[in-house]
Write a structure and sequence with these properties.
By secondary structure, the chain is of the alpha/beta class. It folds into 2 domains: 169 residues, 2-Layer Sandwich (Nucleotidyltransferase, domain 5); 57 residues, Orthogonal Bundle (Arc Repressor Mutant, subunit A). 54% of the residues lie in helices and 14% in strands. The chain has 10 helices and 5 strands. It has a 5-stranded mixed beta sheet. The termini are far apart.
Length: 235
C-alpha cells in the first residue's frame, strides 16, 4: 500500500480569525477518485456563500477516502505573540507525528512563505528529533514545493479541510457577534465590519490579529486606543 501525506494551510493573510493547518493521508490508488470528486486547491472555488457550501460538501465527500487526517487551529492571539512561520512549523511537526509520517511513501508540504527547503528541513528535523536512518527516510520522502495545493491532490485535499475549518470558525465568530459573515481578509468588507463593530462597542472584536500590518486595521486600533484614553481621562 502506497500512502501519501499532504499538508496545507488556510488563513495566512487575514486580519481576523485563525490560521488553520491540515494534513491528510491518502492511498495512491484513491487519487483518481479524489480528482473525479472535484478536489482542487480550495482557493479555486472562489469566495462567497456558494463557494463555502461547495467546499463544505466536498469535504464530506472526500473524508471517507482519507486514511486519517489532522487539523490544527492557530488562534489570532497565538499569531500576535509568535512568528507565523515558527508556529506553522511547530504545528506541522505535530501533524506529522499524528499522521505517523514514517509509514508514508511521500510527504508533500506547501512552501511556507519564502522559507527555503533547507531551513524548513533543519527546523522540522529538530522538532521531530530526526537522526540517522529516520532523517534520511524523511529527506527521501519529502516534497516541499510552491503551489503544492494546485499541483498535488493530497495537498489540495488538505487545503479543503483547512479552508472549511477556517470558514466554520469565522462563521461561528460572526454569529456570536451578531454580524453577517466576513472573511477577515484585508478588503473593504472587513474594513467596514471593523469600523462598524468598533463604533458600536468602542473596542476591537475578538480574534483580531493586532500585529497585522494593514493600514485600515492599524488606523482603527489607534482610534480605539485614543477613545479609551479619553474615557479614562474623564474618570
Amino acid at each position: 500500500m502506497s500512502c501519501l501525506i499532504g499538508i496545507d494551510e488556510a488563513g495566512w493573510g487575514p486580519v481576523l480569525g485563525p490560521l488553520v493547518l491540515a494534513g491528510v493521508v491518502v492511498e495512491e490508488f484513491t487519487l483518481p477518485i479524489l480528482k473525479q470528486l472535484g478536489v482542487k486547491d480550495s482557493k479555486l472555488f472562489g469566495n462567497g456563500e456558494k463557494a463555502r457550501e461547495k467546499r463544505r460538501k466536498l469535504r464530506e465527500k472526500i473524508l471517507p477516502y482519507l486514511i486519517c487526517s489532522s487539523v490544527k487551529i492557530i488562534s489570532a492571539k497565538e499569531l500576535d505573540k509568535d512568528n507565523t512561520i515558527d508556529l506553522e512549523i511547530r504545528y506541522i511537526a505535530e501533524i506529522l507525528k499524528e499522521l505517523n509520517w514514517g509509514k508514508a511513501n511521500c510527504i508533500i508540504c506547501g512552501m511556507l512563505g519564502t522559507l527555503k527547503k533547507e531551513k524548513f528541513i533543519s527546523r522540522i528535523s529538530r522538532l521531530l528529533n530526526l537522526r540517522g536512518i529516520r532523517k534520511n527516510l524523511f529527506l527521501r520522502n519529502l516534497r516541499y514545493e510552491k503551489k503544492a495545493d494546485k499541483n498535488h491532490l493530497p495537498v489540495s485535499a488538505a487545503s479543503i479541510l483547512a479552508k472549511v475549518t477556517r470558514d466554520e470558525e469565522i462563521e461561528k465568530l460572526c454569529g456570536e457577534l451578531g454580524e453577517e459573515y466576513v472573511s477577515g481578509y484585508p478588503n473593504s468588507n472587513t474594513a467596514t465590519f471593523l469600523k462598524r463593530y468598533c463604533q458600536k462597542y468602542h473596542r476591537l472584536p475578538p480574534q483580531i490579529r493586532k500585529t497585522r500590518n494593514w493600514l485600515p486595521l492599524q488606523r482603527i486600533i489607534k482610534q480605539v486606543e485614543s477613545s479609551r484614553l479619553k474615557v479614562n481621562g474623564k474618570r
